[in-house]
Amino acid sequence: MMSAAPQISGEQLADRHFASIVDIIQTQVGIQLPPAKRTMVEGRLRKRARALGLINIDAYGHHLFAGNNLDSELVHLIDCVTTNKTDFFREPSHFEFLTQTAVPGLLPPGERRPLKLWSAACSIGAEAYTIAMALAEMQRSGPRLAFSILGTDISTDVLTAAKKGIYPAAMFDPVPPNMRERYVMMSRDPSRQEGRIVPELRQRAQFHRLNLMDERYPFDRDVDVIFCRNVLIYFDKPTQKTVIGKLASHLRPGGFLILGHSESMAGGAECGLRQVLPTIFQSS
Questions:
Q1: Does 157 lie in the same domain as 245?
Q2: 113 labelled as ligand-binding?
Q3: Are residues 207 and 70 in the same domain?
């Protein structure tokens, strides 16, 4: 009697589907997904499969490729596999540099103009609102400071969260207590355990979708400070160099590009940037 053929559970992506997804994310977003990330990718895509009413993750692979749904599903696929780790006041020395060195240097005494800041790969907005808090504190102790903040990310899900400015209460733990009192409205319902950024700061920030792999960035070219932290590590060296060059082209002379502490600059000098601190670069 012949034995039955082994059954595929459907709880894993077929190898060909995983390879196709890796190629798509590398091409479209610049992010590398090595084999070690497969379990993470499959875990996230299972949630998407359930949302679509599919029986398992293998059915999701068929939905993408055999079902010719890649175009309509691409934004959701990107949302699923991109990492969106963020915190308030992450790498706090950068915000000390912003308020103690960058802004005073960019706005010498007597100069009055709005500051433009950009949080690239902003995730759910914690970095953008941290910038807003830091600058609002400068306003309290000195001349009136006008500023606007642009937050961009490739994930539509995180941008929706950023615009709302609502976060779990525990996320505000790194915010100094006096700033938390001024800039965060905690829910009066104890069961909700969440807070919201005050309207005055939410009005200072605008959030837009941007793929750092895009050929052009449709934003101003006189930005004072660009934060692009902890995203370049997911790109290969040529992509890092290309992205840095495009970001640098949006800085005003003397403006600053701030990277994450785990990142290094590739081709900074070629982009007209000089290093002023280990992860901080200034345009010429």
A1: yes
A2: no
A3: no
The answer on whether 90 is annotated among ligand-binding residues is yes
Name the domain boundary from 27, 48, 81: 81
Domain count, the chain: 2
User: Residue 183 falls within a domain, yes or no?
Assistant: no
Domain that holds residue 40: 15-81
pLDDT in tens, 83-120: 667 899 999 999 999 999 999 999 987 788 999 999 99
Q: Which residues are catalytic?
A: 44, 153
The answer to whether the annotation marks 224 as part of a ligand binding site is no
CB count, 10 Å around CB of 216?
7
In a domain, 24, yes or no: yes
pLDDT digits (tens, 9 = 90+) for 28-87: 888 888 888 899 889 889 988 998 999 889 899 889 888 888 888 888 888 888 766 789
